[in-house]
Each structure stands twice: as C-alpha cells, then as structure tokens.
Request: fold
Amino acid sequence: MSDQEEAREEPREYRMKELADAAGITVRTVRFYRERGLIPPPRREGRIAWYDTHHLARLRTIAALLERGHTLNGIADLATAFESGRDVGEVLGLGEPTEETPVRLTPEALADHFEGEVTAENLATALELGYLATDGDDLVHISRRLLDVSAALVREGVPLAAVFEASRQVRAHADALAELFATTLRTHAGAAAPEKLRPLAKSVVDAELSMALDRRLREP
Reply:
C-alpha cells in the first residue's frame, strides 16, 4: 500500500512539526510552502494550527513533482489549475452508462504519463475539456483508452497542446456523427435504436476512418 493510499484510509490531524516529520521535510519548509500558497491554510483551534491528511498528500505531491524537474512556481500554477477543476461526479455524471473506464491518477503519476508536458496550461485545458476531473487529492481521467493514446502521441513527439487541439476537432466531428446515427436509428428503428446504436455506429466510423487513412497515406 502506498503512503497516499494509507493517508486516505487513516485520516488524522497533525501539528506542524508532526506534519513536517511525516512528509520528511523541515518545519521551515512547511511554513514556506504555506506562505507561497502551495498548501491550504490549516484548521485553527485557538493558537494551535491543525493540518490533515490532505496537507500531507499535497506535500508529498510537491516533493514528487520537484524530483521530476518542476519548479515551485510551476507547481503553484498546477495547484491553481487543479483546484479550479470540476468534481469527478460532475464530469462523469452519476449513473450514466459508458463504455469507457476512468483512471485514478495522482498528480505525480500524471506527470509520469506526460513527461515534460504537464504544465498549468495543459492541465487547465484537460480539465476544461472534461478529460480530467478532481477527486479529493487525486485526478480522474475519464477514459483509459484516451489516456493511453494521448500518452503514446506525446511519446512520438506530438506536443500535448497539439493533441488537445486535435481532440477538440475530433470531438466536434464525433458529436455530429453521433447525432447523425441517433437521428437515423430513432427515425427508422424506433425503440430498438439505443441498443443498436453503439456497435453499428462504431463499425461504420471505424471502416470509413480506415479507408480515409488509406487514401491519405497513398497520397504523394
């Protein structure tokens, strides 16, 4: 079990010295991060400041991102983008059917998927597009398939910003195709349309895309 999983399962509160010890840093560093806004303010009880497992998770994330070459300014920008994201329930919808498998990621795991490409701007774009949602101290990607394909494109040298721009255009075309198939089946197949829609539409789009790629790749 990872430290972050253990922290989620056993919530507790810490005084500043206890928090620093648990995170493996100094009290001075905790205070510095708090002053920079890298961790949220503690809960105060009289003159005592109480930190919790969310603060500990944030400190571990900061340490992991620093190890991956991020600067404190960059981490602060990432934290701001992260905190502006929509909750996972809002993005995925409650009880809505889907064939996609969501993936839970820590911010540092996301950085590992897209080495050097996890900037505040790209994170904000992913959150805006609904590819990522927040869930406590973690992020949730809406689709393992899209996550894997996006990471593969970045490994091939395609900038993540370019992947997002292409994704915007693909989504617009996909929405138009979905509307076309839904209208056709509802008009001519009646009540059976919902059950038939996915496999038929996907087969047609896959075949047409395959043929279109053949035509493009044959061009000089």
The mean pLDDT is 86. The chain is about 65% helix and 10% strand. The radius of gyration is 22 Å.
